[in-house]
Design a protein that fits this description.
Helix content is 29%, strand content 26%. It is of the alpha/beta class. The strands form two sheets. The protein has a three-stranded parallel beta sheet with strand order 2-1-3, covered by helices on one side. It is globular.
């Protein structure tokens, strides 16, 4: 587990959708705070710009190490990268860009 590897987070945020909340809780990396900014826009692609801008604004308010549990469409819009099911992207903010610096595959 990540905890066994010495990985810790100052903040754990999740989409309000049950699958993301449950995933965040199962990771057991801290108290999970569901936020609308991480909700999926898959069913409403026209909301991509607004949703992504809201997520970026949220990310800009965060300091320290944070775990964000969200949806594939959001991850792709924010980073330009694709995450496999059960994969965590380790992202570093570089100015306006969120750059993927590592990947962690969580075993089922």
């Amino acid at each position: 587990s990540m905890r066994a590897e010495g990985i810790a987070f100052d903040l754990v945020l999740s989409s309000q959708w049950c699958r993301c909340r449950e995933t965040a809780e199962l990771l057991d990396m801290g108290q999970v705070k569901p936020v609308k900014e991480l909700n999926s826009f898959f069913a409403n692609p026209s909301e991509r710009g607004v949703t992504t801008a809201s997520a970026k604004e949220l990310i800009d308010t965060i300091s320290g190490r944070s775990l964000l549990v969200t949806h594939q469409v959001n991850i792709r819009a924010l980073t330009g990268a694709y995450a496999s099911s059960g994969e965590i992207l380790v992202v570093e903010r570089q100015g306006e860009v969120l750059r993927v610096v590592d990947r962690i595959l969580v075993e089922p």
